[in-house]
Amino acid sequence: FGSSEPLDTGAKSTRAGRKMAERYLITKSQAVEGAAVPEIVKLKLERNTKLAAEKKDAAAAKEAKRTEERSKLKERTAQYEKEYASHEKELISLRREAKLNSNFFVEPEAKLLFVVRIVGIIKLSPKPRKVLQLLRLKQLHNGVFLKVNK
Length: 150
What we know:
Blueprint: E1 5-6, E2 27-28, H1 39-100, E3 112-116, H2 126-134, E4 143-147
Antiparallel strand pairs: 1-2, 3-4
């Protein structure tokens, strides 16, 4: 008295045309015209149509939210690029100004360091060994971020 074909919810399939797994699809069963349909089957049909509508709405809401987040991300990216470009232009102008005034321009130094241990413990004197221990560099190829203070 009905087909159990998967109900198309309008949601995009995942990865290059793959369909959603059969067990997650909401089936649609239609009663034949004029046939006596049990109450349980009627309830199942109503439930399935309701679930399909909810699933379609949820997918649309998720897509809208994703689009909004991506647009915000693009705006932030453009803002950061603009900020970095203005910083570079400022450094160039300071260098030119120093050159015109016969002065020196001291380049800004990094505020953050990444220190990596590249030497083992063999033939290492006690003071460098203690420094490595204080920097939490106990194994070869371990690394630590440090804030520059002087």
